[in-house]
Amino acid sequence: xxxxxxxxxxxxxxxxxxxxxxxxxxxxxxxxxxxxxxxxxxxxxxxxxxxxxxxxxxxxxxxxxxxxxxxxxxxxxxxxxxxxxxxxxxxxxxxxxxxxxxxxxxxxxxxxxxxxxxxxxxxxxxxxxxxxxxxxxxxxxxxxxxxxxxxxxxxxxxxxxxxxxxxxxxxxxxxxxxxxxxxxxxxxxxxxxxxxxxxxxxxxxxxxxxxxxxxxxxxxxxxxxxxxxxxxxxxxxxxxxxxxxxxxxxxxxxxxxxxxxxxxxxxxxxxxxxxxxxxxxxxxxxxxxxxxxxxxxxxxxxxxxxxxxxxxxxxxxxxxxxxxxxxxxxxxxxxxxxxxxxxxxxxxxxxxxxxxxxxxxxxxxxxxxxxxxxxxxxxxxxxxxxxxxxxxxxxxxxxxxxxxxxxxxxxxxxxxxxx
Length: 419
Hints:
2 domains, alpha+beta, single chain, 419 residues
């Protein structure tokens, strides 16, 4: 007597019938199929989120540090990149309108950086001053947002200092410091009133920030333009937009993105990514083994069914191929479901700062990363390929374990097996 769960409408010995038979078997055993699909969907979802969070975290760290230490992208002369001196500054700013018209450039803000000596009544400190447009600097930098005491400068004659630098100078809000410099205009000095203190949690920022008015910086240095133009570019698009900007720049000018501006940090992140890739591969292997174990349990539970099919003429090889096809079909469905869920969650976390408050629980250690309290996930089509490795591995494991068991199946013994 034929077991009621045995599918017979299709000739089991026909190779062309195997895909249809395997597909119909999935829905004749819905509970096992849903379990297998759920396992693969979860593995795919976890893989997409794993890489989205990893790459997004790296991008957030790079972008955050860039908005403190430099900018998402900078334009300068090629000579200034090798020798950062006002004498190597930009010859003119006529290119600004062309740069601002490049898709992806949200702001282009001139800056003038130069070496100074800051003097208080008690001590002196060498530093690098940055002349900025007070109304525009916040578009390309997070430093104005980290002024914890006082305010952002508004006019010439004012200065904003990093909190640690002000402490070393023993200077308080409202007090005056003297700025000395020597550039194209010769030796110059200016008395500046301290109006704001920056407390970012980054040592390089808190001990090195000196912001003064761009117009006053031009007077002190003798440079009528700027040393750099800082660009605001959407996170994750820095390299692409910077290449487009380079195409509209006149000869002798160079556009550098965040990975070029923060080379050491970029190298560290790339080295870390190699380790993370190994972890992701191990995760895929375990996910594939979970799928294989589900398939193996299905094989054990259906031993008598396979015995009937073998007795009707289906060879062990065809049985093994059918089992492999069932695993491939189920994992493909789970992969598709997981991609929809994974990319959906990734998109949500890429647009809303969901992870920032989570990581903020680490306190000061998180603050030193320079993300500004914001962490977003990244999006990439390659995550789907990473998740697809689960399907490939599951198919391989199905051939090695459950399908191999089918090759050794003896119909007579299988028919005597208990259901």
